[in-house]
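[RESIDUES AND BACKBONE]
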Amino acid sequence: MTENAEYSAVNDAVQGSFFRRVWAMTVPYWRSEEKGKAWLLLVAVIGLSLFSVAISVLLNNWYRDFYNALQQKDTAAFSHLILYFSGIAAIAILSAVYRLYLTQMLTIRWRRWLTEQHFARWLRHKNFYHLETGAYTDNPDQRISEDIDRFTSTTLSLGFGLLRTVVSLVSFSIILWGVSGSIELFGYTIAGYMFWAALLYAVVGSWLTHLIGRRLIPLNNQQQRYEADLRFSMVRIRENAETIALYNGEPNEQERLQGRFGRVWSNFWSLMQVQKRLTFFTSGYGQIAIIFPFVVAAPRYFAGKIELGGLMQINSAFGNVQENLSWFVDAYASLAEWKATCDRLLSFRQAMTENELRSAPIDVQTQGHKLHIAGLTLGLADGRALLDNVNLDVSRTERVMLSGRSGSGKSTLLRAIGGLWPRGGGQILRPEDRTLFLPQRPYMPIGTLREALSYPLAGDSYPDERYREALEQCRLGHLAARLDEGNHWQRVLSPGEQQRLSFARALLYRPQWLFLDEATSAMDEEDEASLYQGLIDRLPGVSLVSVGHRTSLRPFHPRLVKIEGGQLHVQQASAPSAL
C-alpha cells in the first residue's frame, strides 16, 4: 500500500468523527472564562463582515447607475456618482481595517488560551515524558507553537469567509435573478438563467478542483512533519555541539541533515506538482469567469432588452454569485492546509488522551513514611524482564545503595519509583515526605543561575545567603557572583559542575528522601565524598537511595542492594568491598 493510499484508509476510518472532534477542540474557548470578550469580538467581526456585503450590494447598484450615466453622457449624474463612490470607499476602507484588526485580536486571544491549555495538558500526567518514550508523537513543540497558530487563524479566516460568502450569495442571487431575465433554450423558457449559469459554472469548477487538488491534504501534513524533523535535527546538533565536534562527526551529521532535507525537498516537489496543476485550473477558471457573464448576457444586450448599465450590473452580480459559489475552489488550498493542521492537533490530543486513560501497570501510591515495594516486575519493550517479582522496604533515615551490572535495571527501578516506567506490574508505596530525584544528567533551565539552583521552585524561593552557602558547600563558590546572570547553564558548566549544582539544589530544597541516579559519575572521588558527607551533615535524617558503581560510595550507605539475575540481593555494606 502506498503512503497516500495508507493515508486515505486512515482518513476514511476517522472521517465520520473528524468534525465532531474539531468541534470538541473549538467549543471550550467560547465557554471559558474569556467568553465575554470572545463573543463580543466575534459579534463585532461578524457585523463588520455583513456590513462589507452591504457595501458590495451598494456598489453593484452604483455600477448600473454609473455606466448608464456614461452611456447617456450625463455630467451631473457622473459627478454625483463619483462623490457617492468616494464616500462608500472611505467607509469600506475603515470597515476593512477594523475587521482585520479585530479578527487579529480575536485570533491571538484564542491562540493564547488554546496554547496555555495545551501547555498544561502536555505537562500534566507526565504526558511530555510518555509521548517521547512510549506512544511516540513527533514534534509536540511544533504542534503547540505552530499548529495552534495555524488552526486559530485559518479557522476564523475560513469561518468568516464562509459567512460572508453565504450572505453575499443570497443577496446577489436575488439581484441576479431579478436583472438577468429569461431566455429561450431548446423550446424551454429558463427564468433567471444567469443565476443557473453561475450555479452550473461554480459546481463544475468545484468538482474539478477537488479532483485535481485532493492530494494537497496528505502532502501538507507530511510537509509540516518533515520541516519540523529538520529543525529538530539542527537543534540536536546545537545541543550536542561539543560532543559532535570531538567525535569529528560533521560528515555523519551532514548526511543526516541532507537525508532529512531530502524528505522536505521531495515532498515539496510533490506539493509543487499538485499546486501547479491546481493553479493552472483555478487561474483559467478565474479568467474565463471575467468574460463568461458578458458572453451569456450579450444576446439580450444586443437585442436592446438591457442597457449598458444593466449589462454591467449583471456582470457585477454574476461575478459575485459565481465567486461566492466558487468559494470552495478559491479556498481549497487553505482548506487542505487547515485539514492537515487539524489532523496533527487531533492526533496529538488523542495521544495525550490515550496516555491519560491508560491504566498504570505499576500501582504507585504516596503513603506513609517509608518506601515499600511489593511483587514488582519491570520489563522492556522487547518483552525481556529486568526485575521479576521483587520486594524491598526502606525505612526513614536509611541510606541504601543500589548496585549491579550495567543494564541490570538500577536506573529503571528509580524511574518506576518516580512513577515513570510504563511496563511491569506490582505495587510501590512512596513516602509522602518531601522527595527529590537527582539524575545523572541534571536539568538546567535556561535563565538565571538562581533559577537553575532553585528548580523546580521559583528563583525567589530562598534568600541570597542560602544560595551562596549552598554554592560554597558544593565547591561552586566561584559562581556566587553570577546568581542573577542569565545563561544556558547546561552549556556553560562542565558535567561535574552541573552535578555539584544539583547537590546544591538538594541542600536548598532540603528533601527528606533523596534518590540519586549515578549523580556523581562526572566527579572525582574527593568531590563525591565531600558532597555525600555534606548531605548527611546538613540534612540530618535524610533518607538516601543511590544508584552507583564506585566502591567509594559504599561507606555512605550502611545497606547495599545488589541487582543480579532479576532479583534484589540485600546485604550490609559497613565496609568497602569489590562490587
